[in-house]
Amino acid sequence: MDALIQKMHDLGYTEIEEVSENAFLAKHGEGRVYVERVAEKELRPEVVNNVLYKAMEHPSYPQFAFVTNNASNAYLSIAEEKAIPEIPRAVTREESTLFHKRQLTKRDTWS
Prior knowledge:
The protein is of the alpha+beta class. The chain has a single domain, classed as Trna Endonuclease, Chain: A, domain 1 (3-Layer(aba) Sandwich). The chain has helices at residues 2-10, 45-57, 93-96, 106-110; strands spanning 15-20, 23-28, 31-37, 64-68, 73-77, 82-83. Strands 1-2-3-4-5-6 form a 6-stranded mixed β-sheet, sandwiched between helices.
C-alpha cells in the first residue's frame, strides 16, 4: 500500500484517508481518488465494476477510481462510469491561474 500512497502523492493528492485494509481515499482540494488493491490474478470486468460501485457508495463520492492487483491497473471515471487512460494530476492553485483568457493586444482590438 505504501507504493500506491506514494504514487498518489506523486500525482499531487496529499491527503490520505484509510477506508479499509486494501483501500484508501486520496484527496487534494475538491479532487478525490478511490484506490483499492484487489487480490484477484486478473482484473476482470466484474472485479473492476465491484470496486466502481464501492467507490460510488463512499460518502464523499470521489471523481476517479484506481484498481490494481500489483500486476495490472484499471483507471475509472466514476461520473461517466467508464475507463480512462490514467488518473489526472491534482491541479494546484498556482497551476489553475496559468489557465486564463489571453489578453487582447492593440492589434487584436484594431482588427
